[in-house]
């Protein structure tokens, strides 16, 4: 005999048979499955969309690696960084002629850019001055012929013998006026038909007058004075083959002239022989519309000249 179905009764509720309850749950489940199937079909028929961003769309948390301890940077040094080492420049290669092989080392050093076989188009004034000064000293002695106008010397023609080594000496003569200017042993003298006097820029009128003439004569004869004259000029233009009296020279022409005895010169040209010694020097300028000029020719380089001071009897003053 089959037992009657059990009944489940909640407090305050009607009693429902167990079988009926099971049938009711199954019906609800089947109804839910039907709706789920319809939702799946509808979702598959829609195009895929990107997942919406939001609190639930976050990427999984990946544990970050352990921080590596930072290396402490070295404290900057208070000492300044050393300047960069300059790249050494290659000295120009010399190209000496057979005659130039005998040049002293000091002349080769001072005139290096003029002895490379290819002359520069321009030459700095300081380099020109150093070259000519060194070559004049190496020349030991020479003769001069001068033509002057409105300078410290009497206007006209002059001749001179000069010694450039071991010390500077000069004996200049003006035959027309009977004037002689002598430099010997570091002292200067003036001799005239009326007597003679030593030169002293701090002395009396006669001594000061003599000092002016000594300075004017030395300006184009003393190696140091000629070097300073060139160095005081502007940059020089270089003409490799300048002809004079059938001879070829290297000509240097100043872009701007130097100052000569307080007068600003407009031009300075100097022609150098193969051993870089001056063969011709020309300086000119204007002061108060008056032309000042000096033309100097050099000859007999390498001939020692002995210059002696005048006798005391000749220095009794300008009477």
Automatic annotation (TrEMBL):
> Which parts of the sequence are annotated with region: Disordered?
41-101
Q: Where is the composition biased (Low complexity)?
A: 51-61, 69-78
Extent of Pro residues compositional bias: 79-89
- The protein's superkingdom reads Bacteria
In Swiss-Prot or TrEMBL terms, this protein is called Uncharacterized protein
């Amino acid at each position: 005999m089959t037992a009657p179905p059990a009944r489940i009764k909640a407090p305050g509720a009607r009693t429902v048979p167990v079988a009926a309850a099971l049938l009711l749950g199954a019906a609800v489940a089947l109804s839910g499955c039907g709706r789920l199937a319809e939702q799946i079909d509808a979702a598959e028929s829609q195009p895929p969309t990107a997942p919406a961003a939001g609190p639930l769309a976050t990427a999984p948390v990946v544990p970050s690696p352990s921080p590596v301890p930072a290396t402490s940077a070295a404290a900057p040094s208070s000492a300044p960084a050393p300047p960069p080492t300059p790249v050494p420049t290659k000295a120009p290669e010399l190209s000496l002629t057979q005659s130039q092989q005998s040049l002293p080392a000091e002349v080769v050093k001072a005139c290096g850019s003029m002895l490379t076989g290819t002359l520069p188009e321009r030459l700095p004034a300081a380099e020109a001055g150093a070259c000519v000064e060194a070559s004049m000293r190496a020349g030991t002695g020479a003769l001069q012929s001068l033509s002057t106008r409105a300078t410290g010397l009497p206007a006209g023609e002059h001749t001179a013998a000069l010694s450039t080594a071991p010390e500077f000496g000069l004996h200049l003569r003006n035959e027309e006026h009977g004037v002689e200017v002598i430099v010997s042993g570091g002292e200067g003298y003036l001799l005239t038909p009326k007597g003679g006097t030593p030169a002293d820029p701090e002395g009396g009128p006669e001594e000061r007058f003599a000092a002016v003439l000594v300075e004017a004569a030395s300006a184009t004869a003393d190696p140091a004075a000629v070097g300073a004259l060139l160095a005081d000029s502007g940059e020089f233009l270089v003409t490799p083959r300048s002809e004079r009296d059938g001879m070829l020279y290297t000509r240097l022409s100043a872009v701007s002239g130097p100052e000569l005895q307080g007068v600003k010169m407009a031009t300075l040209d100097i022609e150098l022989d193969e051993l870089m010694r001056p063969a011709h020097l020309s300086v000119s300028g204007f002061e108060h519309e008056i032309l000042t000029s000096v033309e100097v020719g050099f000859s007999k380089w390498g001939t020692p000249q002995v210059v002696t001071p005048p006798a005391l009897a000749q220095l009794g003053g300008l009477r």
